[in-house]
Design brief:
It contains three helices and three strands; from the N terminus they run βαββαα. It has 95 residues and is of the alpha+beta class.
Length: 95
């Protein structure tokens, strides 16, 4: 009986600086994958980039996992843009 091959996806998401990439990694890392036996996730920060690698047991899980990850990244990026350090500076300037 042969082992099922794993399907791998690696995504690099650029942020404005390493601090923002680290915040994103920490926020996403809190939630474990729902199917731990079928999805393996690795998150790292490389400079300004958040690097996510996924190994999944099926192509369908690769798609679902990638979509969920990108939705989280979108929300995190919008939140940082709205409430991060840059938005604080913009508010001070407009006063």
């Amino acid at each position: 009986m042969s082992e099922t091959p794993w399907h791998t996806v690696t995504i690099r998401v650029p942020f404005a600086n390493p601090k923002h990439a680290t915040i994103a990694m920490q926020v996403i890392d809190v939630d474990p994958e729902l199917q731990r036996e079928a999805v393996k996730r690795t998150l790292t920060v490389d400079g300004n980039d958040l690097v996510a690698s996924f190994a999944t047991s099926t192509v369908r899980l690769a798609r679902l996992t990638t979509n969920g990850f990108l939705e989280n990244v979108d929300l995190i990026a919008r939140t940082i843009g709205e409430f991060g350090e840059d938005s604080e500076r913009k508010q001070e300037i407009s006063r």
